[in-house]
Inverse folding.
């Protein structure tokens, strides 16, 4: 992907590993922080090891 979908400035790349959901932390009652031991995700056809946000305009 060379650019984000129309009207967007970034995209989320899904990786082969993700934090263990049972270790997610709830912060200030409405924010869930995905943290914890890395475990295999259901994503198999990815070149990424971990989830990442890809921002296309480096001036941001």
């Amino acid at each position: 992907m060379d650019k984000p979908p129309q009207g967007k400035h970034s995209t989320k790349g899904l990786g082969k590993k993700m934090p263990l959901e049972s270790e997610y932390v709830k912060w200030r009652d409405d924010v869930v922080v995905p943290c914890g031991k890395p475990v295999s995700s259901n994503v198999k056809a990815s070149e990424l090891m971990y989830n990442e946000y890809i921002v296309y305009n480096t001036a941001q």
